Amino acid sequence: MDDQGAVVEALALAIAARLPVLLWGAPGTGKTTVVRAIAERAGVACETVIASIREPSDFAGLPVVVGAGGTAGVDFAPPAWARRLASAGEGILFLDELSTAPPAVQAALLRVVLERTVGDLELPAGVAVVAAANPPEQAASGWELSAPLANRFCHLDWPVDGHAVAAGLAAGWPVVPAPALPAGWEHRVPVARSWVGGFLRIRPMLALAVPEDPAGAGRAWPSPRSWDMAATLLAVAEAADTDQLVTSLLVRGAVGSGPGVELLTWLVEADLPDPEEVLADPASFRLPERGDRAFAALSAVAAAVAADPTPERWRAGWVVFGRAADEAIDVAASACRPLVGCRPPGEPVPPEVHRFAPILRDAGLLA
Prior knowledge:
This protein is an alpha/beta fold. The chain has 17 helices and 9 strands.
């Protein structure tokens, strides 16, 4: 897979997961065409909004006085493009020329990007937010993105390959894939969050690292929000069975190149067991020796049970934690909270729970 093909696949997966994604690239390189092609292949609407020619009220809503006298109030009416997306139920909101939007417009976009809320209208969950931007030095009257807006996106750099352009002009452009993910992929998100949590136990300084320079703050950087996005993107990449390059693009696009590479390297070296395999045969579980890896492995098991808390899985989870308590009860106790909170109705307390009773009582998790 070439670099541009990997970016297109990463873009399609982010759209399928309904995570905001931002394409960075020079003018005239096909960013808009690819976004529209993805929407066409998926059979959904694509509303293109040029951010640079809009006012803050185009995103925050136009104030309209309603009622009269003592019952008068103000509604924030959404624009026509938002009403069309709401009527369609699903689609893509494509915010073009984002780096030419002035600060006031960027501020109005914050709720649109993160919450898909335009004025008083909440867009349906089936609407994905995609943006495109030219580097400020290449944009007409370009601005750096504000840190709060930048931290809401997965950032993807749009490459241009001369050979690919030549082939496309001569023989036609490759078909853009329709975004699709298997049903139930969201169940792996808590597991991926556990992995990220294990990594941050040894790199806590990366939990929040806002770049001091405006250019860096306008791209991907680590925060609790972007780490959560990275975890979701890890689950997306796993569900799609994509290759390492696409996974790397997605993770680095969420938290930045350095932190993203560190996380991916840690995951490879940690060689964490699949929690579903552990639950299928809990007696075979072996606790990793290092504390960060042990915490990640146990947290993943607890998260997997919490995502589907059948009595059999809940009992298997406690077998795993009982074995872990023999070696590192403090690590096991700190990771077992999701397991405590997802007890199936009527299920008796297994004997392994008593190992953790004093710690859980101190934490207020056990009466």
